[in-house]
Write a structure and sequence with these properties.
Layout (H helix, E strand, L loop, with lengths): L2 H4 L4 H26 L9 H16 L3 H5 L11 H4 L4 H20 L16 H23 L3 H20 L4 H16 L7 H8 L2 H16 L8
Helix pairs in contact: 2-6, 6-7, 7-8, 8-11, 9-10
Length: 231
Amino acid sequence: MDNQSINQASKKRLLLSWYLDFLFFMTLWVLLSYFLGLDESMPFWEPYVVFVVIRLITSKFIGSIGYTFLSINKDDMSVNNDILIKENWLTILLGVLLVLEGTKQLVRWTQMFVSQPAFGFFPDETTQIVIHLAFGVFFILAGYWFLKLDVKGIIVGIGVALLNLVSDVLSWKLWDPVVEQMVLKRREVQGLPVREGEIEMMQSFMPEGMVVVATIGIIAMAITYPRFKNA
């Protein structure tokens, strides 16, 4: 078996590249829809069809964001060997989750805007949007570097996770009324009534659940550090 076949991108890796491309496409789609006011005027399936067409064309001629993040060569579908021999399922998972969180942060302010506490106070709308965008960019950069096994991924990833953790702890007592507003707003947008106990359940998760998730994420990123040495 030759070296090229050994380094050939697996079907799972190629599928993951589609997923990363979809995240970035939908981020751009949501932002354009928000600024152009297209949300209400299109069928739900339209962005999916547009994505598949654009992805098939661009990946053939210029590659894709997913290929870049996952170190896939568009010409022969091979994977960078230095990455392939050092990565594992956890580094890939964490990298993708960081990118996912980043894309969510970039568009979160466009959907059901409810003022959320940050570092123990309620910022004005403009400041909150800037915070979301900044976190989004840094999460995506962390995800990119993580998938590239660049130690900057661990530094930035743990850094933004710690900032989120500190913000949630400082804002602990401010979350309950915010969660209630978020649930009410979401159900209003969906045109559905609030389910019995739904608000209480969400209040029990936020910020406690967010703190737990951030803590687990920091520990998981720290565990992967040996794979980044001399990467």
